[in-house]
């Protein structure tokens, strides 16, 4: 994924139009920008301190005779280059005058030391937090979508070939297995959420509301329990916040997914027949495919306009639902022996089987086998699509089967059912394409229960992790709930991956012929607005960068312009002449001039500027160190 990241400026709509503008750079370039920002803040700190020093110096400037500490304080204000230098100088001054604690000037110096400390601390923290311009944004980046496309070998069923079916099996199997792997590692396991593999999607996992005391999703007469079933509901998954499709709120959609499952009764729904000296059990739940070597067999029904559609399974009346897609799942033993009896609703295993020896061979344990040839469970899937440009209460289609949810939401996106008739539908309006492209991704990916179970079979069961050499080791009492949650999280993982994989596009040349590319500007825009997490890049808040550099540049500009402005006020208007001249003459070089000028041996020029000068051939007095405890300038003749 890292090879398909967009570099440059983009807007992360999760942060809004003001804080959302984001700059994404390579990690090395990002580190350089962070380092430069920290250095810039250090320079701004020095210039800000210069502004404070100028203000304090002028505020306390007076022509009245003052104590020594006043003049030393003014010299420090004029010549300290940074808050840390000023703080150190003021502390030294306080220590030197520690016997004069009660004087006014002492308290002023203490105040200035405190201001210097606050300034130093503030800008040090600001420099340290300069990296938060990046870390506050996180590691969200945008995929460029250059290779965007949906791999759909069976997109055109009318002309599909055996080769297409084989390609579809390979593609779907890989997608489902990847989804299972991600769900196993990253869903419901908080210890793994810090793993890099769990941070690739915009959210590590989609939160789900679980009701493990749900009613029967079918007619109560066919469920083994009417109050111990399971219902899982994602709530409204925002296309931006949960699926990573970067867009302002009025251009988003929301998707809701609900699954309800319940073990089914077998009494009155089975019959037996003898064939080839074997007893066969037939289950009468509708037109169900027979025969399977796997532990899990399933058949799903497609509901359109509230009725079964196509050649899919047609359930019996007790299992008929008009507002969802039902799926029938059978759990069969196939020779598996359970080390302990269990009766959790779906795992009906109380029939004695045989015995197994322990690993040491010194003893044995009784085993159990399923009570029936196959243990049935029914599930219902429901979907709901919403246009986030509308209020939630008026902007959502029905919570219904896959087809009915899609068609029911179509008017919210300026579409009609007829707009979906083409094998590759394209809407004449931008709003419609904002819905059609996600729909194509949804149907092009194995994000429904029958497709997931078809390719995973028994591996979809969490109980498989405790199966070894045909022995099923102890399972919790609610094992079937755990299994259903695993199915649900696998489907959610598939939904998350579907949008990212579409933006990344096909990476296998064998499947190039099966790629459905975006056909409109809006579809291409969705492709190039897929967000992911990536540690290989650094994203910066443009608001943070602009605030830092604009504010810093303003402080720098003020610090350099303030002195010339004050000088102009003095020269043109004669404004506060003593304060202006004291500021100028408190520089190191002007104080140096004072010391030599008192000897009366040299004529000085530019005596009101920062740098006074003499004639180039003039020599200044050296130190007289006759008294090494009190060195002074020599008053003797000046010779080279």
Feature tags:
3 domains; alpha+beta; three-stranded antiparallel sheet; 640 residues; six-stranded antiparallel sheet; elongated
What report would you give on this structure?
The chain is an alpha+beta fold. Helices cover 36% and strands 19% of the residues. The strands form ten sheets. A six-stranded antiparallel sheet has the order 5-6-7-19-13-10. It has a three-stranded antiparallel sheet with strand order 1-2-24. The protein is elongated and about 135 Å long.
Oligomer: single chain
Strand content: 15-25%
Mean pLDDT: 88
Q: Which stretches are low in confidence, meaning pLDDT under 50 for 5 or more residues running?
A: 289-293
Number of domains: 3
Distance between the termini: 74 Å
Mass-distribution shape: elongated
What's the structural blueprint in terms of helices and strands?
Blueprint: E1 8-11, H1 16-19, E2 21-26, H2 27-60, H3 68-79, H4 83-96, H5 104-128, H6 132-135, E3 140-142, E4 150-151, H7 162-186, E5 209-214, E6 229-238, E7 253-263, E8 270-275, E9 278-283, E10 296-300, E11 303-304, E12 307-308, E13 325-332, E14 337-338, E15 342-343, E16 348-349, E17 351-357, E18 364-369, E19 374-387, H8 402-409, H9 430-443, H10 449-456, E20 467-468, E21 471-472, H11 479-504, E22 515-516, H12 521-527, E23 531-533, E24 537-541, H13 542-573, H14 577-585, H15 588-597, E25 623-624, E26 632-633
Parallel strand pairs: 14-21
Antiparallel strand pairs: 1-2, 2-24, 3-23, 4-22, 5-6, 6-7, 7-19, 8-9, 10-13, 11-12, 13-19, 15-16, 17-18, 20-21, 25-26
